[in-house]
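It is worth pausing here to work through a concrete case rather than discussing structure prediction in the abstract. The textbook approach is simple: state the sequence, then state the predicted structure, then interpret. We follow exactly that order.
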Amino acid sequence: LAMQVMSTTFTHLQSMPQRCTCEAAGVSPELHWTNAPAGTQSFVLIVDDPDAPDPAAPRTTWVHWVLFNLPASSRGLPEGVRDLPAGTGQGLTDWKRTGYGGPCAPIGRHRYFHQLYALDTTLQLPGHPTKQDVERAMQGHVLAHAELIGTYQKRDRAL
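Step two, the predicted structure:
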């Protein structure tokens, strides 16, 4: 069976709840995964939005969350996670900080890719690396990849 990443907070290709976005508390969604391959030493989780700033004319992929060295024994993260599993590293988001940054699409309905990678190693990365640093470090070490896509569009402010 292929590795899967799922959520009780939202379902694949469906809208993410407001509580997970910049219009509310911005809590991270619950995520859990199954069927990690034999030999998995750690996981990487990257959440990004390839539709920024406008899905009709995307110009960049906005990085919302970067976690690396999630322990091989981990099988998920609770909604609004505060205490990450021991050893988990945090990378910088495009807000130039660590931690989950909820969807905040300025225009239209965006897609948020929750990408989980099973690696055959743990990554030796100093400080708070960027998504690109993490992707470079994991090249040649990915045993499996799974993704869960949520969508979000700001509520219409029109009267």
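Step three, interpretation. The helical segments are 131-138. The chain has a mean pLDDT of 96.
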